[in-house]
Design a protein that fits this description.
The longest helix is centred in the last third of the chain and has 21 residues, at about 390-410. The strands form 3 sheets. Strands 3-2-1-4-5 form a 5-stranded parallel beta sheet, with helices on both faces. Helix content is about 45%, strand content about 20%. The chain has 15 helices and 14 strands. The chain is of the alpha/beta class and about 450 residues long. It has 3 domains: about 5-80 and about 100-175, Rossmann fold; about 190-305 and about 350-375, Argininosuccinate synthetase, chain A, domain 2 (Alpha-Beta Complex); about 375-415. Helix 4 (about 75-90) packs across helix 8, helix 5 packs across helix 6 (about 135-145) and helix 8 crosses helix 9 (about 290-305).
């Protein structure tokens, strides 16, 4: 289907569109463009997921542009409880470094978009994601999974307004209320929520260029962080952090406080070149102070409470889980299947973790749990009162060494490999087993 065909087809079928609206230049232009291009009613939806911005201007701008139905929803608690925390139960890291702060916000926005579309009888949703990024995929896969019959309008893949200058010219022509650039517009794009702030584009497109210190909003540089150690204790219940220093908090309150503490101590900066789902590499700089602390602490409490094989299998599944989140498959059956398995492992992940924060570093200094599998009686180097018979290790090692011996003999071209493989070659203790006895 060509762009023109797609535009015409969608134009005739859409009478009401729900737009994910920030109130900025891009989505304000999209709002007017939808009204004029599709001759439809536009409903705006603005999500408060902890970006720290005043949202009332978005309402005022929408009203000034004739919008009658305006949704501004505080989703901070839902965001952390139902999206961030489940992801952290998986210890998810994309490509070993990225804590998925932008990725995990998109399925919640998609969910609320289609909920509003159902509430107000809209037949389409729209977003401001470009045709080069991951967000278009995340929004649209989410919409398809949650409301299969909903149409999605992605203006950046359709219109000819392909630069900031063209957007500004369109805004001026249409009388769209936009704060004029006073010369202090940052030379990069920024996206924030309760989990992180991301910076990309502009001057950051050169992966060799070091970010300017004044770019960072949440974190001081490690060099400027206090010279004193900050110690905190996190309490976990069923894999989720529920208290800091024995003070119980809601999920959003806890993450907000961890961001404050971590940021003040230079924790959580990351500079990454990542592989976008659409096929290109992208450089992103991130501030994730609370998430960095949370991941370290969660792995520490799991180290006490998870069975070895469960923990190892969980680590094997983690990259796949992280990739699903990054690529926009939060609402997929495979992510839900993995989540069920992961959540099952978290039933006994309860306890406390003590951490030291110092100049950008996070160090675990203690962990304890009533559900611990760590046994001091078994692991001690002192007298263990017969709990563990060290002589049993001999047979364990011999059996596990058997295949390594066979492999070595084959490499050496030993004659006994195809013969009787007597104990004289492999060791007397194994001669019976090597003759096929069991």
């Amino acid at each position: 289907m060509t762009k023109n065909t797609m535009t015409q087809s969608t134009r005739h079928s859409c009478k009401k569109v729900v737009l994910a609206y920030s109130g900025g230049l891009d989505t304000s232009v999209i709002l007017r463009w939808l009204q004029e291009t599709y001759e439809c009613e536009v409903v705006t939806f603005t999500a408060d997921i902890g970006q720290g911005e005043e949202l009332s201007p978005a309402r005022a701008k929408a009203e000034a542009m004739g919008v009658k139905e305006i949704y501004i929803d505080d989703l901070r608690e839902e965001f952390v409880a139902d999206f961030v925390f489940p992801m952290f139960r998986a210890n998810a890291l994309y490509e070993g470094e990225y804590l998925l702060g932008t990725s995990i916000a998109r399925p919640l926005i998609a969910k609320r978009l289609v909920e509003i579309a159902t509430e107000c009888g809209a037949d389409a949703v729209s977003h401001g994601a470009t045709g080069k990024g991951n967000d278009q995929v995340r929004f649209e896969l989410g919409a398809s999974a949650l409301k299969p019959d909903i149409a999605v309008i992605a203006p950046w893949r359709i219109w000819s307004l392909t630069s900031r200058e063209k957007l500004l010219a369109y805004a001026a022509e249409k009388g769209i209320p936009i704060e004029m650039d006073q010369g202090n517009r940052p030379p990069y794009s920024m996206d924030a929520n309760l989990l992180h702030i991301s910076y990309e584009g502009g001057i950051l497109e050169d992966p060799w260029l070091e970010p300017a210190e004044e770019m960072f909003r949440w974190t001081v540089s490690p060099e400027a962080a206090p010279d004193e150690v900050r110690e905190i204790v996190l309490t976990f219940e069923r894999g989720d952090a529920v208290a800091i220093d024995e003070v119980a908090m809601s999920p959003a309150e806890l993450l907000t406080e961890l961001n404050r503490i971590g940021g003040a101590n230079g924790v959580g900066r990351a500079d990454i070149v990542e592989n976008r789902y659409v096929g290109m590499k992208s450089r992103g700089v991130y501030e994730t102070p609370g998430g960095t602390i949370l991941l370290k602490a969660h792995r520490a409490v799991e180290s006490l409470t998870l069975d070895r094989e469960v923990a190892h299998l969980k680590d094997e599944l983690m990259p796949r889980y992280a990739e699903l989140v990054y690529n926009g498959y939060w609402w997929s059956p495979e992510r839900e299947m993995l989540q069920t398995a992961i959540d099952h492992t978290q039933q006994e992940v309860n306890g406390e973790v003590r951490l030291k924060l110092y100049k950008g570093g996070v160090q675990v200094t203690g962990r304890r749990s009533e559900k611990s599998l760590f046994s001091e009686k078994v692991v001690t180097f002192e007298e263990d009162e017969g709990v563990y018979d060290q002589a049993n290790a001999t047979g364990f090692i011999e059996l596990n060494a058997l295949r390594l011996r066979l492999h070595a003999l084959r490499k050496q071209g030993g004659e006994t490999l195809g013969g009787d493989m007597s104990g004289e070659t492999l060791g007397g203790d194994l001669s019976g087993e090597m003759r096929g006895e069991s």
